[in-house]
Amino acid sequence: MDPHIRVRPEVRRVADDIGTMEIRGAAKIADAAASALRTQAVESEAETPETFRAELRAAARALHDTRPTAVSLPNALRYVLHGMEGATVEDLRSNTVAAADRFCDRLERSQTDLGAVGANRLKDGDRIMTHCHSTAVLACVEAAVEQGKELTAIVKETRPRNQGHITAERLHELGVPVTLIVDSAARRYLNDVDHVMVGADSIAADGSVINKIGTSGLAVNARDRGTPVVVAAQTFKLHPGTLTGQSVDIEMRDESEIISPEEKAAIGDPTVVNPAFDVTPPRYIDAIVTERGQFPPESIVMLMRELFGEQTTEPWLESGQ
Ligand SMILES: O=P(O)(O)OC[C@H]1O[C@H](OP(=O)(O)O)[C@H](O)[C@@H]1O
């Protein structure tokens, strides 16, 4: 790589934190990535527009290559890099900073707007079941609580990283009584809940939802029990590549999240696999709640065409870089 192209240490730190899941959750990852590009733009010592652009693309690539499934990450990078316009370094810098600020601002507003839509589905006295930790789901609950609705929640612990514990803590802070269950107890309690509410890491053009491993089994069981499944996700979870036939990569994480080397050796050294996400087909989903309103999953492709048009290029892969 050209020695003049310097990715700032803060960008590397954010990339590491996303890779190790210190920063996690699709919306938080998008926010952190856009903010890291902002830092790169502010701190860049590039002397030419070409070097500035190359640095921003290198920073975007470092951030992009951390986790493969949540499309919020490439969508955030794409948004900021499309704003990187100008003929001088100073113009490029200020336009990139403005684009990053716009993105983060939209992210925050979209979460609030989505929460207001999702809250309309929730009635006073309802009980929800959640899987993993989704800020979008919590935005719906928070808006409903602010409207004076009393809710209760059954929270799946969400092995292997137990992110359900974060959800339990946040719901407790919102004053929502929580019952924590192991993942395999979900079916037993589905008759007792009014809605299953989950987030999304990516949504494909056919309305499939890619979310934390275990979501698809939960949705199939919920359909069997007649419990509606609601996916809360801002539109930057829509995966533009799926419009042109790409599939979504499912991240495989380290086996150490499941078992220690000693435990593994003690049980005969089995092969261990640790997929972080699964795909829930649209027929198991009742509604996708976004900041633009609520959609049946099969109609999400119309929204995608409106938002993305035909463009699906990755700006950090532009020729010459
Ligand atoms: O954007 P919000 O709704 O916060 O989160 C969406 C999804 O991101 C998380 O992925 P991970 O924990 O980063 O693997 C979970 O799968 C969660 O449902």
Automatic annotation (TrEMBL):
Its EC number is 5.3.1.29. Transmembrane segments: none annotated. Keywords: Carbohydrate metabolism, Isomerase. The keyword Isomerase applies. GO terms for biological process: L-methionine salvage from methylthioadenosine; pentose catabolic process. The active site is at C132, D201. Substrate binds at R24, G25, A26, A27, R67, N211, K212, K237. GO terms for molecular function: ribose 1,5-bisphosphate isomerase activity; S-methyl-5-thioribose-1-phosphate isomerase activity. InterPro entries: IF-2B-related, IF_2B-like_C, Initiation_fac_2B_a/b/d, M1Pi_N, NagB/RpiA_transferase-like, R15Pi. Pfam families: IF-2B (PF01008). It comes from the Archaea. It catalyses: alpha-D-ribose 1,5-bisphosphate = D-ribulose 1,5-bisphosphate. Belongs to the eIF-2B alpha/beta/delta subunits family. R15P isomerase subfamily. Reaction proceeds via a cis-phosphoenolate intermediate. Catalyzes the isomerization of ribose 1,5-bisphosphate (R15P) to ribulose 1,5-bisphosphate (RuBP). This is Ribose 1,5-bisphosphate isomerase. It comes from Halogranum gelatinilyticum. The lineage of its organism: Archaea, Methanobacteriati, Methanobacteriota, Stenosarchaea group, Halobacteria.
